[in-house]
Design goal:
The structure holds two protein chains of two kinds. Chain A contains 15 helices and two strands. Chain A is mainly alpha-helical. Chain A has a two-stranded antiparallel sheet with strand order 1-2. In chain A, helix 2 crosses helix 14. Chain A is globular, with a radius of gyration of 23 Å. Chain B folds into two domains: about 230 residues, P-loop containing nucleotide triphosphate hydrolases (Rossmann fold), CATH 3.40.50; about 110 residues, Nucleic acid-binding proteins (OB fold (Dihydrolipoamide Acetyltransferase, E2P), Beta Barrel), CATH 2.40.50.140. In chain B, the strands form four sheets. A six-stranded mixed sheet of chain B has the order 6-7-8-3-9-10, with helices on both faces. In chain B, strands 13-12-11-14-20-21 form a six-stranded antiparallel sheet. A five-stranded antiparallel sheet of chain B has the order 15-19-16-17-18, with no helix packed on it. Chain B is elongated and about 75 Å long. The two termini of chain B are about 30 Å apart. The chains are: A mainly alpha, B alpha+beta. At the A-B interface, helix 9 and helix 10 of A face strand 6 and helix 2 of B.
Amino acid sequence: MTQPGTTSRLKYLTPALYILFLLTPIYWLLTMSLKTNQEILSTFSLWPVNPTFENYMVIFTDAAWYSGYINSMIYVSMNTVISVLAALPAAYAFSRYRFLGDKHIFFWLLTNRMAPPAVFALPFFQLYSSVGLFDTHIAVALAHCLFNIPLAIWILEGFMSGVPREIDETAYIDGYSFPRFFTKIFLPLIASGVGVAAFFCFMFSWVELLIARTLTSVAAKPIAAVMTRTVSASGLDWGVLAAAGVLTIIPGALVIWFVRHHIARGFALGRV
Amino acid sequence: MLELRSVSKRERGVVYIDDLSLCLARGDLHVLLGPTLSGKTSLMRLMAGLDLPDSGTLHMDGEDVTGLSVRRRDCAVVYQQFVNYPSLSVYENIASPLRVRGARNAEIDQEVEQAAELLGLRPYLSRRPADLSGGQQQRVALARALVKKASLVLLDEPLANLDYKLREELRAELPKIFKGSDAVVVYTTSAPEEAMLIGDTVTCLHEGQVTNSGKPRALYNRPAKLITAQILSDPPLNVLRVRKNGADLEFADNERVSGGERIASLADGAYKIGLRAHHLDVRKPGEGGIQAEVKITEVTGSETIVHAELGSVRWTALLHGVTPMDAGTRVSLIPDPAKLFVFDMDGALVSAPTE
């Protein structure tokens, strides 16, 4: 239809538009993080005129900032590990066994996804305070399990049901014990499912702010909470905030990169 | 010897196995033959211990193994779908039962090599099952069943999902593969010719019950029940309710054929007769016999299967050579009276053709 010359010029149009629409906000965040507050507020520039890493230096040297990252990392990792470990046996049971009310229980696992997290903030705050878990990493990790374990069960169940039951039976016939079968034969078959479930747990825990902030004050304060408290007497520290934003995107981007081939199946909760 | 004593299995009100008793000797290839839903797979799962019978017991060499866990049974299963461990190499797939048993590496090497040699898997040992053709995948499953040297080997329609050529090839090899093993080998199929070809014994199943069991030729020549004759016949057996009167067999609307001497010696009365499709000849109309109308002909290359109808009675004839006929053609059907099976109205054999 089009002449060769036109095609070669037009073929850059799609990626150009793609980059323009999708990456502009991220690009803007990145340039802001490399500018001084003065440049951000006084001039309009498409790229930093005097690039500076000072904003990043603030974050890496100020304990109030970097401990936010460490806290977030700790409770997110704890949550991911707990969620996946707890969801594996549950998902196997839902996928392989019939028991009283199995379908209903499986469906109602998702009830916690039907309410905004704010609903749970108050009971969690009271509960964790009374048992002395307030402002600890494990408190946030456990609280996030409320959302993440059901989600992980759904994702893993989908992947597990894609493995024929005859493989389980063949393994038992061959003489495998259940733990050996599960770790040596079954887990490798649903490895991508485990990856995807871990990714979703990571992502939801990493971006969740309300519960994480409610359950912490100092010792386990998450980075997102630190970022929302940067309004100081001297006004907003735009540059540092932008640098913090860039650093917050990085872990998510890294994890997404590793499960990029399987994410679509994850959003379909493991169902093909 | 594997012995099943009045075993029953039902699930949600549906009866899968109905008070079934069976004895299977070691060293023989036993074929369970039956149409789909006759309970072949259910029976096999009971034998393997994957399912528990609702009543009845299973005995292996006289020892009661009912309720014994699958892991502790000395048994190997090959499924209709090619079931292998996708994440393991072909070598590890075959070695799997030996590894679990804790065999030494040298022994595993030797056993796997031997099985791979026998099944022609030598060049593929380092590949993954998914990289093999269907026939090769099933050979891997067979090799795994072989190295385990189990005393009970269950093959559940292992060739059903293979294409025609591979099926014939593997079918010819199967008896050789398990020859000399002292195991009870059970093979299920819904194809009568497969049962006749490879079975040392054939057991016919119908609605969760054994109809008859025995050597394939004996069963084919003298099926003790009508249903057994039907299960063993492909194309389907012609079955007809008749009234015997002297040497004549009357059916439908005063049609009659002569039954010959053997029939004449039976008591007069109502019978069911069975006639295999290749014992029914098709001639031009007016040449005697039964006047019927051709409904459909299937030409398979060297043979022609003619389906014809007279009133409500349907006839199937197998002819040598290619003789296509248009639907609606009038023909004479000539049954070979010497080849008639005669059953009483309950389906028990009264008279079979002499061999």
